[in-house]
Design goal:
The chain is of the alpha/beta class and 326 residues long. It has helices at residues 9-25, 30-33, 53-63, 80-88, 99-113, 118-126, 162-168, 192-197, 213-217, 222-228, 249-255, 262-269, 291-296, 311-325, and strands spanning 3-7, 34-38, 44-46, 49-51, 134-137, 144-149, 159-161, 175-181, 201-204, 232-236, 239-240, 243-244, 280-283, 301-303. The protein has a seven-stranded parallel beta sheet with strand order 5-2-1-9-10-13-14, sandwiched between helices. A three-stranded antiparallel beta sheet has the order 7-6-8. A two-stranded antiparallel sheet has the order 3-4. Helix 13 links the parallel strand 13 (280-283) and strand 14.
Length: 326
Amino acid sequence: MKITVLAGGVGGARFLLGARQYLRDAGADPAADLTAIVNTADDLWLAGLRVTPDLDSILYALAGVNDTARGWGRAGDTEVVNTELAAWGAAWPWFTLGDLDIAASLARTAWLRDGLPLAEVVTRLAARWDVGARLLPATGDEAETIVHLAAPADDGRTELHFQEWWVRYRAALPAASFEVRGAADARPADGVLDAIATADVVLLAPSNPVVSIGSILEIPGIRDALGRTTARVVGVSPIIGGAVVRGMADACLTAIGVATSADAVARRYGSRTDGGLLDGWLVDTVDAGVVDALTADGIPTRAVPLWMTDPATTAQLVADAVDLAN
C-alpha cells in the first residue's frame, strides 16, 4: 500500500514514525511505500544559509537522531557556532541553530548553490540514514509565510517572517492574516504531484492546518492534485478537546476566523464531494460528539484515540485512518 502524507514539523514527524511502523507491521517496505510531502513555507535564509526547519525536524526524527527533550534539532548538539554568529550580529539571537544543524544547512546551501533542486538535496541529506520514507519538499521555490499583524509591533513593523512571529514572539502578537509570499509563482517539487496521483491513500497529518498543511495547499497544483487523485484523502485532527496538541495553532486559527475545535478544522478543509479535501476525518474520543454532524455534512468521521505517545500507538492511529479510507 502506497501512503502519501502531507506533514509539517514535530507533529508530522511523530505521525510519520507511526506510518512507518504501520507499514513495517504489515510486512511492507516503508522506504518504497511511504512518501511525505513536507511544508517548506517555514524556510528562511539566515546568516547566508538556507534553513528548512520542518524538513530537518522530520528527517532527524525518522533517522532517530532528533532531540526529543527540546522537540527540535539534533540530540547532543552544541551551539558554539550559533553563539559566535550572534556575537557578530549575523544571526537572530532568539533563533538557535545547533552546530550539527548548521553543518546540515551548509551542505544544503552548497548543493543549492551548485544548482541542485531542493528535492535532490533532501534525498542526499536523507541518504545518510535509513529513514524508511521518501521525503519531498512541497516546493523547491522560495515561498515563505509572512504574518501580517493586527497592530504594529513595538518597532512599528506590520509584518514578520513566520519564524520571528512563532519563535521570538511565541505567536503573542495577534495576527490579521497569513501570506505565503512567492507561492503564486512556485511549482510543486519533482515527485509531489505523482506521489499524490499514485497513492492508495493520502493522509493529512495532525499538523498546523493554517501554516503547515495550509501552506502546502498554497502551492499551485497541489490542491487540484488532491481533488483528482483516486486515493481517499483522510485527515487527522490536530485539535483534541478544544485545545491544540502542540504549538500555537489556536493563534493561527483565530486569525483566520476558525474556532479551535476538531469539527471547525474539518469544515475548514471541507468535504471532497463539495469541492473540499476530505473523504474522511479522525477525531479523538473526547470529541465523539461531533461525529454525526460532520458525517451528515459529507465528511465521514470516526472517533479514535489520537494521542501519539509512541510509534506503536501512532501506528494504530494510521491503521484507523487507512481503515476509514477503505
